[in-house]
Every structure is written in C-alpha cells, then in structure tokens.
Design brief:
- The structure is a single chain.
- By secondary structure, the protein is an alpha/beta fold.
- The chain has 5 domains: about 100 residues, Arc Repressor Mutant, subunit A, CATH 1.10.10.650; about 180 residues, Tex N-terminal region-like; about 120 residues, Nucleotidyltransferase, domain 5 (2-Layer Sandwich), CATH 3.30.420; about 130 residues, Tex RuvX-like domain-like (DNA polymerase, domain 1); about 130 residues, Nucleic acid-binding proteins (OB fold (Dihydrolipoamide Acetyltransferase, E2P), Beta Barrel), CATH 2.40.50.
- It contains 31 helices and 15 strands.
- Helix 1 packs across helix 2 and helix 8 packs across helix 11.
- The longest helix has about 50 residues.
- The protein is globular, with a radius of gyration of 33 Å.
- The chain starts with a helix and ends with a helix.
- The relative contact order is 0.07.
C-alpha cells in the first residue's frame, strides 16, 4: 500500500500524508464532496478535482496490485518464477507492461508452437538460433517424428519456426520497443468500403484519410471507429517498409533476438522466422492493441468533454422560485401545456392546437392568456423540439396581444424529457397526469431550476456529449455520476422541497435514504432542525455526518441550518458569538464585522484555519448559490430554418455543446451550427473552453450553410463581425452587446442528438475552410 501512496503523491505533486489521509477517508466511505469541503485539515486542502484524480488512480493501482499478485502466483505455481522475473514483475508500473511479462506464462489454448514443443522440436529451434552455421535441413532430419505429424524436414522446420515466432512474440522488451515505434511512426488510414459511397455519405471526410495515429484527435478517432463498426469504412494501421526492402520493425526484431544475415547456413531461415513473427503474430497483436489504445484514449477524452458539458448545464443559472408556464410543442398532437407554481407543484394543464391541421391559433392564445393571468405567470418555457419555432411565434403573438401580462419567453432544451415522462419516477411524482403532459411539466421545472430537474434523468439522455453511445458505458456512467454528485453538493439541497432524485445525489445518501426522508417529511411535516434527520429510518450517524452540511433548512430553528456550516462545526460559531457578545441573527450578513475576525483565534484540535475561514465566509452570505445570473437568448424573427440563413448574418445564439474541436451553437433553426476552434477567437487558443462553456450566450456570424448535409459554419471572431454588419444584417440584440464571448453569461440549452452523431465529420468539413479564412 505504501508503494501506491508514494506513486500517487508523486503523480499529483502532493505530500504523502495528504494522500494517506485522503485514502483513509475514502476507504471509510467518505465522499469526495464531503472530504474536499469538510476535511481540509486532514488532507491539507486537496480540492475535489485532485481528490477525483486520486480516487481514480487509487482504483487503477489497486487493480494493478491485485493482478500483479495473481500473475506472480500463477508463474510460481508453474515453477518458473526466477528472481529476475519477479523483480521485473514487481517493477511493472502499468497493466500493459505487466501483461507483456506474463505473456509467455499465461495459460493458453494448444498452439502450433505448443504442438511442436510436445514433439520435441524446441532444442532444434534454439540450436539454429544460437548457432546459425548449422544447416537447417540436416538438423531437421534428426527430429523427424511421424507419429506427431512431423514426417519430413519441411514439417519439422515449420514447427521449429512456430516455436521461434511465439518466443519472439512473447518477448516483453521487444514488444515494448515495437509498440512505442508503431505509436510514434504508425499512420492510421481509412477508405470507404467498396460500394458503400452513398450509404457512408456522413463519413465523406474519411473516404481517403491518413493521419499519424498518435495525432488523431478523439472526435475523429470515434468517427473512424463508428464508420468501421458500421461496415462503411476500412481502417488500417501502416508503417514505412521502404528501408532496404525490410520493415524497420523486422529489423528491430532481428537485432533484439540476434539474427543477422552473414551468409551462414541458417541465416535465411532465421530471417524468415523474424518476418513471419512480425507479420503473422506481432503486428496483428499490436495493431489491435494500438487501435484499442487510441479508442480508449478517445473515449476518455469524449467522456471528459461530456462531463464538462454536463457540469455547465447542471449549473446553469436557475430562473428561480417563480410560476412557470411550460409548453411541449407538437403539430398534429397539439401543444401540451403545464403551469407550475414557485415550488414546482403542478397547478394546471391543457392541450392546445394552434398548428396544422386544426389551426386553432386565436383559441390557443386565449387559453394561454387565461392560464397566465389565473396563475400570475411571467415566464413561458418552450421546449426546443418539433414545432418549437412555430410555438415560439405563437407566444410572441400572445405577448403582443396581451402586453399587460408582461410575459417573457425562453426556449428550453427538452432533451431527455420523454425519458423522464415515461419513467417510474415521473409516474410516482405525477401519477394523475398523462405521459404527454409530464413533458410540459419537466420543461417548466427545467427553467425554474435546471439542476433539480435534470438529476431525474439519466445523464446520457441529456444529450450534451459527443459519441456518448460509442464509449465505454461503465466509465461514462461513473464519470457522469461523479459530475452530478459534485454539482448537487456544490449548490446544496433544500431538504424540505427536494425530490427523492435530488436528495439521492447528496453526499452520504442513496435512493433508499432519499425516499425515507421524503416519507418522513410527508408524515411529520417540514424538518425544523438538521438533527431530526437522525430519526429517519436507516439514516445513521455516518450518513448524517456525510450529508448534513449539504442539506439546507430555510426558516428552521437554527439559522445555521440554512448554511453550509456543518453541524459538527457549530461550536466554532458559538466561540465567535461568545467573543463578539452578539446573537447569531446579528452577525449573519454583517460583512464589516466578520471581516475583522481572525480565523486562528477560533481554531481547536479538530478545526483549523481553513475550516474556520470557510465558516466566516459562509456567515457573510449563508446558503449562497454558486450559479450565475439568469439570462436568455433572443433568436432573430424570421430565421427559423436552414434555408433562412445567409452568409454574413450576425445572430445571437446559445452554446449547446463544447468539444475539443469547437462549439455547437443553437441559433434557432433546429440545427446547431459549428464554430470551429480556429474561428472562436482572433487569438490562438488550444481549448474551446478558454472562450466558451455550455449555456453561454454568444454572437456568431454565419460563414457557410450546407443545406444538403444540414451543416452550418459559424464564426465568433470579432474580426469577422462589425457594428455595421450587426445593424445592417439584422443580428438581433447584438450591436449593443460588446462583451467578449468569455464574458457572456449562461443560457440553458443543449445540442440536438443529431449533431452529436455528426460532430466528428462536421469538424473536419469546416476545419480547412475556416483555416483559410484566418
């Protein structure tokens, strides 16, 4: 274990006691949010990002150690464990290196080499390798074994060759050298499968593609593998073989095993063994392994991108505790309507038919106006799916006809709403509502509080990733669960209003405890004190310790229960009150007084300066919400479809998805446009997140429109935009907004699933065009 602690400390560049403390807390069942927030003294202030990395590496290294023990036991049982081999195995620092060392000893099916060994041909193979002056034919004649299937010299030499091929292919040092060479020098090539040109149109950029394998970015790698898996692309790894007619990899094998052509009797035969070992055994093995390495790296990057986007979406600014009218647009089936109150409770529902074929426009406006007036609604949330722009026009007409209502409309992503509507959770929350109306409720609640509503949906269904269905689903789920957990606990949860889904994401709680809390709340009324949590069935001291600081009680018996101050630290506040001679209600929010306090005066053996500093900061503004200010985008009227777009238009949009190659922007035409990384800023940037994040409001200029392929090329470079363009080309609400993209604030929408599927090809398609422009 000490070896693991040392390695993690080196990798994270932190002290060993910090790692040791963190590992101890994790092993005790503490969560990352709890450790990073309430155990700073123990870990020396490790933040949540460091702790997540530590947790991941701890899992990997422990798995490595378990596998190392298994390997050692297996080789020891075979009686083949030497001191040198044991030393090499104990020093292996990756699973790949460990498996290379184990390869010759791993139990395997009966190979041709094994059959040759059983026939007694291994001495022949070793003799020819050791002494190439021996004549292969003459030596082979000594090993004829008709009963075993080796009745002539050719068969014997073929068997000896199989032994040497397997020996070369199981040489750990050799495999390491060849693996590194292929990764550094190999080129990944793709071509369209014969006769699949039309079917593979979305992969057109990869019909004749080549790039060094180590340079292939994650989105391109995943696009290539998807094309291959669908049988539309042929994918191969190639290396230069133009050195003296022999591949450099064959030359590496020959040097490693001591084969060289000096005109001796066995030299040609040995070189043939090397050639066959490379082409039949080693290359096929490494080809598969390096493609897997590329895929895994691409998946990890895609999962990371998904996590970043999910984090930004979950922490999008909430509209707040206001009544909301939610609209789930539809054409033939009508627009589903739901009104929720400030707490998200459903007040009213309806179905209207403003669009074809019924065209009940005026009646629909009258119905919406009546609902808005009856429930004092000021915000209208419109789902961004089918018929959203038509429904957006309906609400615009509503606001014009009824200015007294002072309505503001907001387009809201409905990704995953149908998943929620049909879920067991939705049935439990809204049993009296039809499935179709539940979607409208979800859309309204998403505007109210994105975090509280989106945690009810499986993260993958929210649709802010690239190729999320192509990546390792277990790793994706683990990463996204971590993101959700971090987001929920960074904001905090009102224990008296939160749903079971939201409570279940709180540190220390699970689905069962969350449901028990809601049952207790319904039976006994609102919680007035955090300690009452201990009366909830199955919620013990350990769960309370983990969860209490993240649960909020507004208007409870103790004002501190509305803050992130943990109940265990209430004695620290008591010491502050005693020294000040004031009541808690008098010091909360008194910034002038609080900033005069010196944290070191209130520490003890358990709570040091970091925790006391946090407590004083929290007392300035208890329960502060880390999320930004609520803002919305205004889409230009008359721009509703791809055909409405023209080059040089400047529009306002919402960042729906950020990838490594750029950002997708919703400009209100049912198809997100792409701002390639080269068109995101007038200065060079390495990562699109230097400029934008999911939910940001941005100004973009239309550069290209490909209606046939449903692609929109956009630019955010200020040099591509001007006030004159803003005014003359009709960019709505853009001329007055001089903020740089990085300063613009959040909205609350995300990319359509169709764009996620095409993102890799879209990036390549527009990359060259944008580079030529800048």
């Amino acid at each position: 274990m000490q070896k693991i602690i040392n390695q993690i400390a080196d990798e994270l560049s932190v002290a060993m006691p910090q790692v040791l403390a963190a590992v101890g807390l994790l092993d005790e069942g503490a969560t990352v949010p709890f450790i990073s927030r309430y155990r700073k003294e123990k870990t020396g202030g490790l933040d949540d990002a460091q702790l997540r990395n530590l947790e991941e590496r701890l899992g990997y290294l422990r798995e490595l150690e378990d596998r190392r023990r298994t390997v050692l036991d297996s080789i020891r049982e075979q009686g083949k464990l030497t001191e040198a081999l044991e030393r090499d195995i104990n020093s292996a620092d990756t699973k790949t290196r460990l498996e290379d060392l184990y390869l010759p000893y791993r139990p395997k099916r009966r190979t041709k080499a094994q059959i040759a060994r059983e026939a007694g041909l291994e001495p022949l193979a070793q003799a020819l390798l050791t002494d190439p002056t021996l004549d292969p034919q003459l030596e082979a004649a000594k090993y004829l074994n008709e009963e075993a299937g080796f009745s002539d010299e050719k068969a014997v030499l073929d068997g000896a060759r199989q032994i040497l091929m397997e020996t070369f292919a199981e040489n750990a040092e050799l495999l390491g050298k060849l693996r590194n060479y292929l990764w550094d020098q190999g080129v990944l090539k793709s071509q369209v499968a014969k006769g699949k040109e039309q079917e593979a149109a979305k992969f057109k950029d990869y019909f004749d593609y080549a790039e060094p394998i180590r340079q292939v970015p994650s989105h391109r790698a995943l696009a290539l593998f998807r094309g291959r898996n669908e049988g539309l692309l042929n994918l191969e790894l190639v290396v230069d073989e133009a050195i003296s007619g022999t591949s450099p990899c064959e030359m590496t094998i020959a040097r490693q095993v001591g084969v060289e052509n000096q005109g001796r009797a066995a030299d040609n035969w040995l070189q043939e063994c090397v050639r066959w070992a490379w082409r039949v055994k080693i290359f096929s093995h490494l080809d598969l392994e390096l493609k897997m390495r590329l895929r895994e790296a691409a998946e990890e990057e895609a999962i990371k991108v998904f996590g970043h986007n999910l984090h930004d979406l979950l922490l999008a600014a909430p509209a707040g505790n206001l009544p909301i009218l939610g609209l789930d647009p539809g054409l033939r089936t009508g627009v589903k309507v739901a009104v929720v109150d400030a707490t998200g409770k459903v007040l009213d529902t309806a179905t209207i038919y403003p669009h074809a074929p019924k065209n009940q426009w005026d009646a629909s406006i009258a119905a919406l106006a009546a609902l808005a007036q009856r429930h004092a609604v000021r915000l209208v949330a419109i789902g961004n799916g089918t018929a959203s722009r038509e429904t957006d026009r309906l609400v615009s007409d509503l606001t014009k006809r009824h200015p007294e209502l002072k309505l503001q409309k907001v387009m809201v992503s409905e990704a995953g709403a149908s998943v929620y509507s049909a879920s067991e959770l939705a049935s439990a929350e809204l049993p009296e509502l039809d499935v179709t109306l539940r979607g409208a409720v979800s859309i309204a609640r998403r505007l109210q509080d994105p975090l509280a509503e989106l945690v009810k949906i499986e993260p993958k269904a929210i649709g802010v990733g690239q190729y999320q269905h192509d990546v390792n689903q277990t790793r994706l789920a683990r990463q996204l669960d971590n993101v959700v957990e971090d987001c929920v606990n960074s904001v905090g949860v009102d224990i008296n209003t939160a749903s079971p889904a939201l409570l279940g994401q709180v540190s220390g709680l699970n689905k069962t405890l969350a449901e028990n809390i809601v049952v207790y709340r319904n039976e006994h009324g609102a919680f007035k004190d955090r300690r009452l949590l201990l009366k909830v069935p199955r919620l013990g001291e350990k769960s309370f310790e983990q969860a209490a600081g993240f649960l909020r009680i507004s208007g409870g018996d103790n004002p501190l229960d509305a803050s992130s101050v943990h109940p265990e630290a209430y004695p620290v506040v008591e010491r502050i009150l005693q020294k000040a001679g004031r009541r808690i209600q008098e010091i909360i929010g008194d910034k002038a007084f609080l900033r005069t306090l010196k944290p070191e005066q209130f520490t003890d053996e358990k709570f040091g300066v970091p925790t006391v500093t946090d407590i004083i900061s929290e007392l300035e503004k208890p329960g502060r919400d880390p999320r930004g200010q609520f803002e919305t985008a205004s889409f230009k009227e008359g721009i509703e479809t791809l055909s409405d777009l023209k080059p040089d238009m400047v529009l306002e949009g919402v960042v729906t998805n950020v990838t490594n190659f750029g950002a997708f922007i919703d400009i209100g035409v049912h198809q997100d446009g792409l701002v390639h990384i080269s068109a995101m800023s007038d200065k060079f940037i390495k990562d699109p997140r230097e400029v934008v994040k999911t939910g940001d409001l941005v100004k973009v200029k239309v550069m290209e429109v490909d209606i046939a392929r449903k692609r929109i090329g956009l630019s955010m470079r200020l040099s591509d935009q001007s006030d004159k363009v803003n005014q003359d080309k009709g960019g709505n609400n853009t001329a007055k907004d001089k903020r740089t993209p990085s300063k613009q604030k959040k909205g609350g929408r995300q990319q359509s699933p169709a764009n996620a599927a095409a993102s890799g090809a879209m990036a390549a398609a527009f990359s060259n065009a944008f580079k030529k422009r800048g």
